[in-house]
């Protein structure tokens, strides 16, 4: 692993997992997403991981027209690196999932590195009432849902977006996903340094135990040597302990309302910026320096904000 002199903070602004009924602070409209992203960047996030939502219902959408409503605003309002999802919303086709990133030609796009069960149905029982008709069925259908990322699908995403000069955040939800990335690296479809996002706590992926973090790092070290940067995210209440542990090990961190709606026990996070500010305080108390967007560009070898499509 490349042990960075400075820690990259990524912030995932809204995602496609949480629904509007779970928190009044979840960004839904283009204006809210832009405000959340710019606020996170000003608080210290170098990378802004972005999904879009229907502004009327809050339902996830990958329609490029929706991204067009906030990406230019974010670019004008801050220097953060834009990272567009290719995971999209649960149940979308691959064409739908890739559409926004192919239009935007961002510096970074996410790339899920394997298929797996993705079960978020448990959240449904904790919501007393839903604001929108789509929310409860969307959550409950995941009891019988596989998030599909076949080798053919991954190769297509890597090829089509790689041709645009886009780099990747390789999202690895289990140990096997690291081996999948090694397969594509050996074939030359992706080039180092790899930005490996290890993800813990999604039901169907690797569990949120510290030993699992150590195992993921050891496996990535064996597969990629000094050719990768490790970043850590964990779902819900596991977010801050896990990302702090990852930073102590020499890795980078991801926070944001996509991954966790809370700032502390029983306290909903008022904004993405509040989560960024909190992890920044923790990192600085550990005498770790925070990477600026330009620091992250140099570390990850992105093409720069002048070469995106928005």
TrEMBL record:
InterPro entries: Aldolase_TIM, BKACE. One of its GO terms (molecular function) is metal ion binding. Gene3D superfamilies: Aldolase class I. Keywords: Metal-binding, Transferase, Zinc. It holds the Pfam family BKACE. PANTHER family: 3-KETO-5-AMINOHEXANOATE CLEAVAGE ENZYME (PTHR37418:SF2), 3-KETO-5-AMINOHEXANOATE CLEAVAGE ENZYME-RELATED (PTHR37418). This is 3-keto-5-aminohexanoate cleavage protein. It comes from Bosea spartocytisi.
